[in-house]
């Protein structure tokens, strides 16, 4: 299968679950006189996260702190960029931050602060992941890349039995891989697969823009501090790698805890390209919430601990997920659907470890969850 494959969700048994849920969620916003988009608290949060990314870098250049202090500042930047990605960029590129498309567009470009391109992210995340959640060869988030096996439908190699240990190193280099290679690999792949339907001229412009963005990105991080502020290149390189490792680790772990955990399903289409499920039911069966009462965690990760609500309503700003979660849970129960949830972060984390172990065992080569 590839991105151009016509996969459809066709429910054998029709259900009114999603129409009923949509009506109730709409009623929630109407009755409470709330907008679906960001509010003043979200604007403050955006300012805090952006400042936490920019100001430490300014301090590194202007104050030239000693090595270990600078490493702490780089670590703070790594935490900030993952927070920006999960809280600001994510909502904006879903069209959920503001009702003004221009605001969403420009805040969506905050992905460039991590050195990544916005168009590829939208195709990977908004189209493939959100449409074909946990469907092997279509959902890029569980795609087999050889080293880590996140689907029961991929061939197990002998080294996969240790993936529950080494996976976190590869999680940590995710954003660095994205900056250096992933954008260009996806650029070619999405054109060949048919997902990217832009004209040749548009793609040339996209590629040129991506190259310029990355050159500016590396120029700011390496040329500016070393040439203009005489900071040792080794200090900058060490900090840059630390920032990206921390950001990649945070981002990847958070996203894995929603789909690559015990209890989620990994359906495959039948020979006619049909998944015999209602799309909303499919989302319920492939997604798990975690740590719903941890307000600090929810603030930092942009409500991604409420992944069920996000997958069902991606165009609603994440600050509203705690409010609509009880509605989703109640409606799911009425329709006999399992609302999966881990009460704490640690329970979700250990569940992910269990899945890494399970999928890495040779005997699980042909298993289906």
TrEMBL record:
<feature type="transmembrane region" description="Helical">
    <location>
        <begin position="235"/>
        <end position="258"/>
    </location>
</feature>
<dbReference type="InterPro" id="IPR012171">
    <property type="entry name" value="Fatty_acid_desaturase"/>
</dbReference>
<feature type="domain" description="Fatty acid desaturase">
    <location>
        <begin position="68"/>
        <end position="341"/>
    </location>
</feature>
<keyword id="KW-1133">Transmembrane helix</keyword>
<protein>
    <submittedName>
        <fullName>Fatty acid desaturase</fullName>
    </submittedName>
</protein>
<dbReference type="Pfam" id="PF00487">
    <property type="entry name" value="FA_desaturase"/>
</dbReference>
<keyword id="KW-0472">Membrane</keyword>
<keyword id="KW-0812">Transmembrane</keyword>
<feature type="transmembrane region" description="Helical">
    <location>
        <begin position="102"/>
        <end position="121"/>
    </location>
</feature>
<feature type="transmembrane region" description="Helical">
    <location>
        <begin position="68"/>
        <end position="90"/>
    </location>
</feature>
<feature type="transmembrane region" description="Helical">
    <location>
        <begin position="164"/>
        <end position="185"/>
    </location>
</feature>
<dbReference type="InterPro" id="IPR005804">
    <property type="entry name" value="FA_desaturase_dom"/>
</dbReference>
<feature type="transmembrane region" description="Helical">
    <location>
        <begin position="42"/>
        <end position="62"/>
    </location>
</feature>
<feature type="transmembrane region" description="Helical">
    <location>
        <begin position="206"/>
        <end position="229"/>
    </location>
</feature>
